[in-house]
Design brief:
Layout: E1 9-14, H1 21-34, H2 39-59, E2 65-71, E3 75-83, H3 92-105, E4 108-114, E5 117-125
Antiparallel strand pairs: 1-2, 2-3, 3-5, 4-5
Length: about 130
């Protein structure tokens, strides 16, 4: 079955509370499943969203987390942001660890602090399978 992209972006706003990040992971799982990701790819995206949200909570000022999920024919894009605390919003050791994890689980990623905002961008591509080619 060929995947048909969903027209539009899915948006989620969460309080800056680590206990609620599970909702973002559930949304990511549902979207990845809809996009035809296998179990490992779904888990990779869940891990990436968890890391991104943790960075927002750590680097943020307590403002809500704004998340958006976009579907393409072969990928899921996730963008998250919140108000930052200042120029050194995220601890460098924590930032290094998050970037190392993201390098393993997604195809593209950015963790940024700029102009009073802390944000992340992720892209996870669905692997091409032999049954997709036909």
């Amino acid at each position: 079955m060929e995947f048909q992209p969903v027209d539009g972006t899915i948006e989620l706003v969460l309080p800056a509370d680590a206990r609620l990040v599970r909702l973002a992971r559930l949304v990511a799982s549902g979207i990845a499943s809809t996009a035809g990701f296998d179990v490992e790819e779904v888990e990779d995206l869940r891990i990436a969203v968890d890391e991104g949200c943790a960075s927002l909570i750590e680097g943020g000022d307590g403002s809500p987390l704004l998340l958006s999920f976009g579907l393409a024919a072969d990928a899921v894009d996730v963008f998250g942001s919140t108000n930052g605390r200042g120029p050194t919003d995220i601890d460098e050791n924590r930032l290094s660890l998050s970037k190392a994890i993201l390098r393993v689980v997604v195809d593209e990623h950015e963790l940024l602090t700029d102009r009073g905002r802390t944000s992340f961008r992720l892209r996870k591509r669905r692997a091409v399978r032999t049954d997709d080619a036909g």
